[in-house]
């Protein structure tokens, strides 16, 4: 008996599309400790436009957080986000050379991840009340600390 498959063969990308240097891994909040050296190397890559945007965003978030109440956290208004369009920002990352990532929760406490091209970043920083069960988080300091630790001349 002959079996005829109706499933088409998998499509394979042209290997020439992947020539050149490998794409760096993203720098994200939940990267494993063994990736720390690679992350540090990635943050030192100053020819990376996404990383430059990350460095500047971290400084702007830290400055914004300096002026909010102890019971508030930085949030962002995002067009197209369900509900009131507010996202509580928990962390920021980048995937060079071109993507910026915002990690957080929406008004219902559901996880939200916003991925944008560094040339299209339009984020309105605002404030949201912190949850009652924990102190307010200040991510700007943590982001800037990463930048300083990996490249003190930033």
Structure description:
By secondary structure, this protein is α+β, with helices and mostly antiparallel strands. It has one domain. The chain has three helices and five strands. The chain has a five-stranded antiparallel sheet with strand order 4-3-2-1-5. Strand 2 and strand 3 form a beta hairpin. Helix 1 packs across helix 3 and helix 2 packs across helix 3. The chain is globular, with a radius of gyration of 19 Å.
Provide a brief overview of the structure.
By secondary structure, the chain is an alpha+beta fold. It has three helices and five strands.
Keyword list:
single chain; 154 residues; five-stranded antiparallel β-sheet; 3 helices; 25% helix
| Secondary-structure element string | HHEEEEEH
Strand content: 15-25%
Q: What value does the Rg take, in angstroms?
A: 19 Å
Low-confidence stretches: none
Taking strands numbered 1, 2, ... along the chain, how are they ordered across the largest sheet?
A: 4-3-2-1-5
Terminal residue distance = 69 Å
The figure for the number of domains is: 1
Helix content estimate? 10-25%
Number of helices: 3
Main sheet? 5 strands, antiparallel
Broad shape = globular
Provide the structure class.
Answer: alpha+beta
Q: How many E strands?
A: 5
Mean pLDDT: 74
């Amino acid at each position: 008996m002959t079996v005829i498959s109706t499933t088409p063969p998998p499509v394979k990308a042209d290997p020439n599309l992947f020539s050149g240097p490998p794409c760096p891994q993203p720098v994200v909040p939940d990267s494993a400790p063994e990736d720390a050296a690679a992350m540090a190397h990635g943050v030192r890559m100053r020819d990376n436009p996404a990383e430059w945007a990350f460095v500047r965003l971290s400084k702007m978030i830290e400055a914004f957080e300096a002026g909010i109440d102890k019971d508030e956290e930085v949030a962002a208004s995002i067009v197209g986000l369900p509900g009131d369009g507010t996202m509580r920002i928990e962390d920021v990352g980048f995937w060079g050379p071109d993507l910026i990532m915002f990690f957080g929760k929406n008004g219902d406490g559901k996880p939200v991840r916003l991925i944008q091209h560094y040339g299209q970043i339009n984020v309105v920083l605002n404030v949201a009340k912190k949850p009652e069960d924990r102190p307010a988080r200040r991510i700007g300091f943590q982001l800037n600390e990463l930048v300083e630790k990996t490249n003190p001349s930033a």
